[in-house]
Design a protein that fits this description.
homodimer; 219 residues; alpha/beta; eight-stranded mixed beta sheet; two-stranded antiparallel ribbon; 8 helices; 11 strands
């Protein structure tokens, strides 16, 4: 599929590279069309499946858009794309973390009674927003089989069933097992996924390494 | 040991009964010394190990105090005990949930930049507060072997290592495996445990049953 990635950071690179490996066409988008990190993405993948452009270019290109911008600036990055994302699937993997506090907190406007996922859906009511892949490090997210033979949990939430099904397909291509993909219902589930992240961040600092996750165990 | 329980609800009953089963002396405390639920606790355990009194009676009696009052009223219940809890271990299992919102949220004064556990520690600086057992239903908390042969995770956090060790001993008596008890460090860890609860509440509504939990999986 044609997939746009908003954001040129590590998260965008991990996701973009893995999507190309899985046969998709990927355009990464940044603020500056000459951003070395964006151009580096194209160099790293010398095939016609990797491209780089502005936020607007990537957002026009993709049938699916990954929001992989830094949590603090994600809404602004999407605004710079200057589109209403009508009918497009926006997969939001960003976390609105504030690392200036000790311990880290969520940026208050997105915490508890709101979330990044809901904010994006509200900003673009014609888009189909799905929150996923935000509850662990992205190196694990794109290659879950690194841990416990892939037997651990990823969550999805969003208002549109078709959009969640498309997201699930991408997750399975990454290596997630269908029985470990938990659908938390509508986009307000993004709240619970982002709140959980504070526990994950704490465990990461405690364990001193990023390759861990939770598995939901039912009776 | 002599253990006081602040709160006469289901959570207090589950914990109190299990502690008596494990050989401890338990005094449940309520606002009203004639509360039928408190008196019922004594009737249910016709031994000298079960008693009922006021919040103050239970708080004086216990070397260890469980805060099992409804999250919304927990700080007030402790205030009614009219003690500084000097040197005592307060095990806080309460969750500051607001069920008047859809979906449920945390009461904002305790969310993200604060927590119930920290609030109790701040209110009683001479007490040793440990947060634990708040991340699943208490029927599972007091009998973890019901699920996956007891192989799932419970968290503790608190400023005092000795207090966490005493708490760990009680958890092991309940059936928790030492390798599944994760120490999240100081009492600010309570924040991450309470934030996670919103995800647990969402999963409980989704699964339609309370016997589930997460297991933290490390590489």
């Amino acid at each position: 599929m044609k997939i746009g990635i908003v954001g040129t950071g590590d998260v965008g690179h991990f996701i973009g590279s893995r999507l190309i490996e899985n046969g998709h066409q990927v355009m990464m988008g940044g603020r500056d069309p000459n951003n070395p990190k964006g151009l580096g993405f194209v160099k790293k993948h010398p095939s016609e499946n990797a491209a780089y452009g502005t936020f607007a270019d990537a957002s026009r290109f993709g049938e699916i858009i990954f929001n992989a911008a830094n949590g603090r600036f994600a809404l602004v990055a999407l605004q710079l794309a200057n589109t209403d994302f009508s009918g497009k699937l926006i997969i939001d993997v960003a976390n609105p973390l504030d690392f200036t506090t000790t311990p880290p907190t969520l940026i208050s406007e997105f915490a508890n009674t709101n979330s990044m996922g809901e904010s994006i859906q509200n900003q673009y009511p014609k888009a189909k927003v799905v929150k996923t892949l935000n509850t662990f490090g992205m190196t694990l997210g794109i290659n879950p089989k690194q841990l416990n033979n892939g037997d651990h949990t990823v969550f999805v939430s969003g208002n549109d069933e078709g959009a969640k099904a498309s997201t699930t397909t991408l997750l399975i291509e990454f290596g997630w097992k269908i029985e470990n993909i938990i659908d938390l219902g509508d986009i307000t589930g993004a709240r619970s996924m982002e709140l959980y992240l504070i526990l994950a961040v704490r465990m990461k600092m405690l364990f001193g390494e990023p390759i861990f996750n939770i598995k939901v165990i039912k009776s």
